[in-house]
């Protein structure tokens, strides 16, 4: 899934749940490590990655979104 | 069968801003400053929602001290009225100064910098600014001005009071709540309309601008009786292949074919005004075309990266980093994305719409990009506050507040356990749009496609199902897309000529008489009806 949370680093502050523009974290509970409920709705915008105070999120770029480059 | 029930809550204010992007927030700031009680609604969160959520790096404007005088034709470009264009150029610099004072860095290394996103041979009118946190700053400013922001609420429809728009009805996208907004004026600022046409990128949410901007403002305005214009004049964009993202004007390399032959004149990239270059090259069999950064200096590379970050392209830079690949050594492909809908609510220079009490700004009609959102958002705020100051309070008995209809629709979707997901319905509309109202259009295709679309459109509200408030939001987005789709078909059938991406195989020429007019579509007896109007 696109947004991957490092459970060791996450402090369950909920910033990602608060700001995600497409609400992929819908249903996450306060003070718990967020769940990515709707991964197929991730726009890969990096908002959660950028705003996470713990640097605990990275995007796994979906296979159908991998850039095509020359070796 | 589930048994979901929506509780009804009421919110009262003078001005309601639907959409918390740069337009909606600038409207809220200006209207609050005029003394109006303002509520901003966003179906995401104003800090990071929409196209500007993670930034923008180009602000169209005229700064005489830097650019000198611009040629007179600048006052006439654009798809909206000449008065709108003139108003834009007269006000854009003021907004630059205002945004700068709010902490949005409009200068680069202490100076106004015009670069990128330009047309070769003409004065550059795109101010390169560092806008990654534009929405954060505008949210802060709106709150400071006294506006109330309600996030995670989607508006379903507008409320009428004797021909005047006086509020809206919406629902919470996280909790089972129906909200009735009773206001004296409404500003639509919901942005673009994506997800109507397939973007040729493999999934519904892989779109170059925000996939949750689904023409909600256009659809609710149309349903309330407002005309929409230029809906058939679709556009296309280009950008990195498979990772749909805008910002092509921020990449400063050149395009090269597989043999390394450059196919454009250089850094000024006319290709971003010729998005079909990539598709046409691909079709010719000589492709693919690569964005080649090998010739740029280290200093220029750092400059480009700075602005790509502010143009919301960090995930693309991160991709290269994680892949262990330096894009300067590995040219990568660009592609042409699918059709989009620039047309919409053709607001005037005061941001008024044909409906009293209803104002619109920003990408409700795509023009002037983020600078247009800033300028016309502010003007909409001013106009709406002035309107609200003299408006009578909502007459509860006379007003049409569709609480029962809204509740019935939303609860039926929530309670259905056998039916269609929003994805199924979204794919269905994209399919019919692409095949019958896409890049090949003709009377026979449009007629057959419209018939099919109307059959689907009748079924959709009867079969859509949502497991929760989040999916309910996606379902309502798709219902809006069906309205926009039908309007696009009706307009495309009426425009019997070829213009831009509106390509009629049965009328393969541009008709200058048609060009002097604008095509509007309005709801009459429940159906979209086309009407030609003189260009303003």
Description:
The complex is a heterodimer of chains A (71) and B (536). Chain A is built from 2 helices and 2 strands, in the order βααβ. Chain A is mostly loops and 71 residues long. Chain A has one domain: Alpha-Beta Plaits. The termini of chain A are far apart. Chain B has 536 residues and is α/β, with parallel strands linked by helices. Among the domains of chain B are: 74 residues, no CATH class; 98 residues, no CATH class; 132 residues, Methane Monooxygenase Hydroxylase, Chain G, domain 1 (Up-down Bundle), CATH 1.20.58.100. Chain B contains 14 helices and 18 strands. Chain B has a 5-stranded parallel β-sheet with strand order 6-3-2-10-16, sandwiched between helices. Chain B has a 4-stranded mixed β-sheet with strand order 1-9-8-7. In chain B, helix 11 runs antiparallel to helix 12. Chains A and B meet through helix 2 of A and helix 8 and helix 13 of B.
Report the portion of residues of chain A in β strands: 5-15%
Counting helices, strands and paired strands, the structural category of chain A is: little secondary structure
C-alpha-based Rg of chain B, rounded: 23 Å
Trace the largest sheet of chain B across and list its strands: 6-3-2-10-16
Instruction: Quickly count the helices of chain A.
Output: 2
The average pLDDT score of chain A comes to 96
What is the helix/strand order of chain A? EHHE
Helix content of chain A: 10-25%
CATH superfamily of the domain at 403-534 in chain B: Fumarate reductase/succinate dehydrogenase flavoprotein-like, C-terminal domain
What is the overall silhouette of chain A?
globular
